[in-house]
């Protein structure tokens, strides 16, 4: 946004002038009714923060834009000021500075107006005039400055009526102060005492008509170092104080020192002035030796109204490691009431300097009265007026500096003000300590509810995340109703709050809370706005608004940066300003405008949100970006106000400020445009088009009418030009009709409308068109010049359409009486006892539809199919693809334009199972209807349904690694009597079970049971469980704990002998005692369960077996009855084979005996075989005998 060159000659340089040029860049959208083309801008110095606040204003002289410039008056008198900028009073008139600081004043105080930032807060008074605040207004007490803040009521004629500074009180600068110093030997080092005096006295205005100071030193005796009237300037007192030496003394006569000061130092002879407040400062480091007199001495001081400050130096006690309890109690008794405001203690003499500032402030008692000096010091830096708001009954002033920057809200009513106590807004139930620098009052507002008013204050630094407090007034008491807390540290939640009555019923509907420094994902200050709806007297979070994400590209942070940001920080600070504006788009609801001054590299932007019902729409209606250069004009959106019609057109206009300028945006009127279309004839005769014997062209006349009405009451529209576009057969790629005058399907025209106007156009049907659907005629329209003048009402359509149907042919009958029949068959089936199992391989199935017409022609016959959410429409076959429309239901047109008597049509609908919706039954309901009439008694076969019970086979994979083990027990293995480690038990078995999610179906909750043989019948160990581990989604419990014998601890485990050696080669849970591990498995992509055992080697070493097999069984079950598992995934067994080796060279006796027996048996059989064969008959001997 830049300034313009329409200043008249002689106008003041750098002062705002109105301009009628385009100063805002915006991508135009037709529904935008804030005009960014024709705006009025005002410019001023960036360094003066011109545009920091803006307000629309009206008085008898005319209409104005008030612009705050908090640093105006540079460089000498940088007080800040307010400018009045005329609107509609002639071109080229400059903004005029009101010079309010000259007339803003609080009597009887030494004011410091420089840097008072007047104009930082600017609020229109609903009763006329406005309130301008300077939160950094200060005044002096002595040489100390106190920033209390000030606000001034300015009349409608721009004159200061009165000034309000609730924290300011007349300073008691005429004080007679006597400092009573302990100069005994225990004070060390003395130089620290003189440094303390120098620092304290340097900030006092000392003189005969100002403050007077005298010093008394005591130890064993009392000495007047100098009297109240000895020196007349601060400089003289400083020189004398530096020369004071330590008098010494072994005793500390504190009562004597105080009494001497009362009797002698405060006499007129020594300079005491009648009627001037007496102040005594007692500095000591030890218990007094005359403390028996102390009570009486203090009572005498009270009678003479001597205010006493006491300082306990604990150095001597700390150096001697002595208890300070009695010392502190005695020194507290010296101080005036309230003690906490008049008593100080320091750890040693060197620490005296740390209390100088606080002591000086309390001596001058900023909020004191004559009867209560130095009793309160809480609002001296309050900065009242940093925010301001007019409620129904009160004026609210935020005072962030009150109570050590915890802040408060000053409530003003009938020229009297109420300042809540420091603890009024504490949450005593949850806050252990008082909040630190919460900045309560940074922003204030109120909400109207039936019969009551809610007051709202933000404290953006509360607990570092920010808080908003909602309270109400009960007389002079404050009742806290609710607290809203921020969610991110440093977001400044609660720095901006706005309430708005959306539906104009006088009651508040929503509260918007800004958190402009909310960090985005890239650490940019994106900002957020939280929207709360008001339910009776409680605010409930409704939604969160966010800006367009800013691209943060800096050469310092990004090497590949091309379009880099020049300014830091990067972001938007969305929510820096939030303004409720009167109904911009004339829809009956008030609207919201939100500033984002850091957008576009600190050029800034604002977002317009339209009201809707009793809330706002979450999506913004318009974004207005600054056209400034980011230097002469930046932070556009810093301030916003939109409550008035400034140009007399009956529409609310919006003023937006930034640093260096402000702009006034005119609202554009909203027009209701009602369009209608009528056709003659209203239906198309199918016979005329389809009859080959009497074919004739069908012509149709379209009458298009427009009626225009402006929504604003003040405006009247004479004439307007509307541009419109007509499209024939709009839903078709190829049109079945054309315009007579252009022989095209589309036509664009303009029409001038005054109130209402109609126009005619002719078109004709092409020969032999299809009749599947009616002819759709689409009409789009807008104003011929959409960038100027009114805009179309966004709540009304800017396009309409009508259908021209084809006529029905019922022969000689007046009505077509049809009888339709519909049957359907699914390609899958299932029952409750045997449901259909859905697998990844059979996700798709078909349903065949058969439609039959038993009587007269059925026109526009339609099959309507509804289906359960666990299936989705996948396609159509046997009829044209575009015959069916799918949405919540499937609607298929069959036999268009009519289904002839006796005609049958069948087609297939493909469905696919929807694995994101699991149901027990797949249900398909179907019906057929037409535009022809059908008697009720024949409707029964027009509809039907299919219900198929289903279950889903989860595609999960259940496996374990490894699948088997082979353990060999060496022949020379031994088993120790005492076991110190589980490694001595035997070989380790690690089984890793893994469950993987399948591709198509969701993972059900599972139960996993792992069974393993752990003991024989005589309690000899088989498998010894040592460890269980599993994924985060698993929870396992074991019937037997891991390492139940606590092997590895102290003392070592002593083994016992093996009873009844193992004889069975097959060891499983069918015949042996098994332990179980039971796991619940929540759905996850990958799940692991790892089990570790040790083979109890001794059991198998002593077994009467050469080898054995141990079976570990894992059972998996689905926790969802709809999701079943594959059979192979329900049970997995792991085999552990155990073999024993024999000793080398050693043959067991049973083997020897068995071998001898076998050898003898074989020999016997051999001899018997030879005998049978006649081997022993010896025929050779017989031959020799012959």
From TrEMBL:
VWFA domain sequence ranges: 176-359
Signal peptide range: 1-31
CDD domains hit by this protein: vWA_integrins_alpha_subunit
GO cellular component terms listed in the entry, alphabetical order: basal part of cell; external side of plasma membrane; focal adhesion; integrin alpha1-beta1 complex
Cell compartment(s), UniProt: Membrane
Transmembrane residue ranges: 1147-1171
Family of this protein: Belongs to the integrin alpha chain family.
Protein name listed in UniProt: Integrin subunit alpha 1
Gene name for this UniProt entry: ITGA1
């Amino acid at each position: 946004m830049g300034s313009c060159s329409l200043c008249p000659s002689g106008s003041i340089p750098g002062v705002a002038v109105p301009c009628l040029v385009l100063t805002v860049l915006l991508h135009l959208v037709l529904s935008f009714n804030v005009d960014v083309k024709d705006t009025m801008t005002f410019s001023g110095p960036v360094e003066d923060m011109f545009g920091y606040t803006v307000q629309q204003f009206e008085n008898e002289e005319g209409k104005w834009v008030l612009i705050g410039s908090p640093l105006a008056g540079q460089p000498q008198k940088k007080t800040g000021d307010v400018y009045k900028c005329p609107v509609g009073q002639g071109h080229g008139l400059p903004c005029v500075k009101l010079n309010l600081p000259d007339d803003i004043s609080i009597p009887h105080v030494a004011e410091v107006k420089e840097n008072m930032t007047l104009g930082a807060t600017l609020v229109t008074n609903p009763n006329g005039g406005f309130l301008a605040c300077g939160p950094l207004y200060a005044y002096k007490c002595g040489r100390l400055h106190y920033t209390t803040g000030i606000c001034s009521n300015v009349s409608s004629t721009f004159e200061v009526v009165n000034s309000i500074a609730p924290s300011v009180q007349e300073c008691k600068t005429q004080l007679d102060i006597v400092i009573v110093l302990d100069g005994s030997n225990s004070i060390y080092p003395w130089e620290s005492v003189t440094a303390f005096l120098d620092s304290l006295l340097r900030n006092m205005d000392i003189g005969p008509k100002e403050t007077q100071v005298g010093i008394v030193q005591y130890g064993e005796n009392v000495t007047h170092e100098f009297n109240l009237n000895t020196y007349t300037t601060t400089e003289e007192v400083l020189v004398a104080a530096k020369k004071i030496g330590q008098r010494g003394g072994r005793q500390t006569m504190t009562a004597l020192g105080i009494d001497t000061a009362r009797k002698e130092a405060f006499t007129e002879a020594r300079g005491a002035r009648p009627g001037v407040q007496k102040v005594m400062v007692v500095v000591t480091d030890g218990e007094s030796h005359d403390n028996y007199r102390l009570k009486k001495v203090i009572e005498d001081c009270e009678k003479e109204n001597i205010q006493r400050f006491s300082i306990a130096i604990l150095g001597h006690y700390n150096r001697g490691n002595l208890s300070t309890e009695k010392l502190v109690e005695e020194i507290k008794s010296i101080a005036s009431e309230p003690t906490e405001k008049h008593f100080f203690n320091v750890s040693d003499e060197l620490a005296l300097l740390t209390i100088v500032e606080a002591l000086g402030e309390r001596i001058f008692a900023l909020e004191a009265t004559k009867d209560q000096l130095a009793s309160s010091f809480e609002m001296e830096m309050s900065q009242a007026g940093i925010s301001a708001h007019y409620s129904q009954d009160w004026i609210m002033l935020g005072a962030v500096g009150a109570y050590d920057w915890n802040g408060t809200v000053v409530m003003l009513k009938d020229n009297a003000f109420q300042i809540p106590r420091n603890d009024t807004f504490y949450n005593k139930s949850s806050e252990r300590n008082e909040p630190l620098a919460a900045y309560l009052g940074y922003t204030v507002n109120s909400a109207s509810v039936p019969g009551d008013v809610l007051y709202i204050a933000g404290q953006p630094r509360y607990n570092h995340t920010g808080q908003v407090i909602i309270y109400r007034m009960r007389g002079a008491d404050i009742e806290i109703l609710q607290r809203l807390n921020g969610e991110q540290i440093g977001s400044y939640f609660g720095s901006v709050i706005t309430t708005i009555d959306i539906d104009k019923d006088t009651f508040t509907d929503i509260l918007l809370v800004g958190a402009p420094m909310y960090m985005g994902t890239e650490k940019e200050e994106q900002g957020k706005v939280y929207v709360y709806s008001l339910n009776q007297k409680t605010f409930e979070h409704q939604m969160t608004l966010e800006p367009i994400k800013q691209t943060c590209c800096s050469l310092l942070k990004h090497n590949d940066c091309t379009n880099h940001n020049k300014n830091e920080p990067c972001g938007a600070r969305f929510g820096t300003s939030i303004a409720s504006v009167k109904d911009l788009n004339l829809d009956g609801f008030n609207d919201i405008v939100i500033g984002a001054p850091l957008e576009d590299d600190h050029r800034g932007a604002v977002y317009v949100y339209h009201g809707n019902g009793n809330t706002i729409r979450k999506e913004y209606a318009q974004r207005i970006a600054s056209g400034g250069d980011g230097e002469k004009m930046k932070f556009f959106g810093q301030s916003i106000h939109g409550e008035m019609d400034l140009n007399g057109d009956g529409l609310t206009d919006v003023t937006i400020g930034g640093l260096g300028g402000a702009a006034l945006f005119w609202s554009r009127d909203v027009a209701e445009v009602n369009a209608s279309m009528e056709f003659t004839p209203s239906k198309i005769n199918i016979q005329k088009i389809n009859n080959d014997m009497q074919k004739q062209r069908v012509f149709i006349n379209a009458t298009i009418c427009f009626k225009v009405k402006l929504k604003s009451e003040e405006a009247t529209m004479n004439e307007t030009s509307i541009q419109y576009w007509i499209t024939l057969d709009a839903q078709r790629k190829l049109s079945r009709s054309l315009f007579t005058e252009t022989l095209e399907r589309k036509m664009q025209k303009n029409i001038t409308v005054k109130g209402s106007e109609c126009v005619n156009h002719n078109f004709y049907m092409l020969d032999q068109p299809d009749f599947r659907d009616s002819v759709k005629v689409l009409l789009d329209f807008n104003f011929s010049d959409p960038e100027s003048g009114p805009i179309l009402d966004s709540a009304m359509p800017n396009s309409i359409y009508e259908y021209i149907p084809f006529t029905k042919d019922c022969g000689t009958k007046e009505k077509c009486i049809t009888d339709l029949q519909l049957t359907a068959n699914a390609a899958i089936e299932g029952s409750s006892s045997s449901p259909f199992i859905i697998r990844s391989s059979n996700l798709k199935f078909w349903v065949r539809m058969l439609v039959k017409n038993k009587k007269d022609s059925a026109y526009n016959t339609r099959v309507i199919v509804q289906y359960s959410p666990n299936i989705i429409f996948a396609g159509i076959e046997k009829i044209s693809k575009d015959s069916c429309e799918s949405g919540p239901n499937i609607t298929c047109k069959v036999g268009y334009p009519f289904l002839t008597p006796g005609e049958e049509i069948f087609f297939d609908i493909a469905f696919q199972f929807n694995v994101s919706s699991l149901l027990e039954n797949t249900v398909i309901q179907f019906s057929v209807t037409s535009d022809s009439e059908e008697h009720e008694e024949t409707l029964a076969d027009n509809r039907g349904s299919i219900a198929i019970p289903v279950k889903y086979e989860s595609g999960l994979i259940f496996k374990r690694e490894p699948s088997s083990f082979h353990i060999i027990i060496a022949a020379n293995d031994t088993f120790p009597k005492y076991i110190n480690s589980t490694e001595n038990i035997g070989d380790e078995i690690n089984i890793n079970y893994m469950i993987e999610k399948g591709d198509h179906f969701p993972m059900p909750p599972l139960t996993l049971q792992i069974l393993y043989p752990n003991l024989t019948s005589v309690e000899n160990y088989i498998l010894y469980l040592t460890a269980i581990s599993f994924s985060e989604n698993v929870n396992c419990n074991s019937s037997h704990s891991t390492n139940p014998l606590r092997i590895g601890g102290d003392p070592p485990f002593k083994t016992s002998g093996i009873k009844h050696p193992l004889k069975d080669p097959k060891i499983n849970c069918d015949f042996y005692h098994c332990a179980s591990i039971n796991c619940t498995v929540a759905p996850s992509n990958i799940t692991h369960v790892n089990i570790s055992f040790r083979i109890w080697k001794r059991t198998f070493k002593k077994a009467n077996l050469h080898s054995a097999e141990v079976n570990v069984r894992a059972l998996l079950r689905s926790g969802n009855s709809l999701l079943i598992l594959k059979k192979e995934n329900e049970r997995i067994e792991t085999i552990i084979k155990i073999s024993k080796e024999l000793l080398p060279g050693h043959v067991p006796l049973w083997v020897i005996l068995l071998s001898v027996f076998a050898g003898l048996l074989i020999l016997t059989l051999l001899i018997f075989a030879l005998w049978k064969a006649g081997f022993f008959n010896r025929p050779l001997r017989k031959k020799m005998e012959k």
